[in-house]
């Protein structure tokens, strides 16, 4: 199958996104200007603003991109014969590996600073993200349909899982009151979270 060739505009947009990833990682989001992004992407500053009306808009695009990777990046499929705890642990780990990166935390910090003054925009963004089907949601639906899990309010159940994870490994890092977790800490959290969730919902 022949890969679709990007238009000139699409190529410039991708160059801006690549430059943003590189610059934000090296200088931090706050330490990167739109002028720097234009120079790194080798496009004009006007071109940057044509694609992204503000740095906040660019940041939100990158967060959506990373979150999409987090919620759909796992290749774990439901297996009625396999260990539910192992499957759920893998699904949660795929998400936590993304949201505990320094890049994601830095982007989220800028986004939250912006949304603090625009609560209606935050509500719309949350609704947009919640509409996306995730690997976790597909797995939970399959587990319920197979009779392995009790029927649950899907949104409530997913919020429970995310609440247990983010309460330890996102919000404290976002507020800079705790360092990023190491691999052992992440594994311990997802294992305990999966075990706690299944102790109530598993049939």
Features:
about 200 residues; mainly alpha; Arc Repressor Mutant, subunit A; Tetracycline Repressor, domain 2; elongated
Question: Could you please describe the fold and organization of this structure?
Answer:
The radius of gyration is 19 Å and the shape is elongated. The longest helix has 20 residues, at 8-27. It starts with 7 loop residues before the first helix and ends with a helix. By secondary structure, the protein is mainly alpha-helical. The chain is 71% helix and 0% strand. The chain folds into two domains: 1-53, Homeodomain-like (Arc Repressor Mutant, subunit A), CATH 1.10.10.60; 56-201, Tetracycline Repressor, domain 2 (Orthogonal Bundle).
CATH superfamily of the largest domain: Tetracycline Repressor, domain 2
The CATH topology of the largest domain is: Tetracycline Repressor, domain 2
The rounded Rg comes to 19 Å
The helical percent reads over 70%
* Highest-level CATH class of the largest domain: Mainly Alpha
Query: Low-confidence runs (pLDDT<50, min 5 residues)?
Result: none
For the secondary structure, the number of strands is 0
The average pLDDT value, as a whole number, equals 88
Strand content: under 5%
- Total discrete domains: 2
**So what's the overall shape?**
elongated
- Main β sheet profile: none
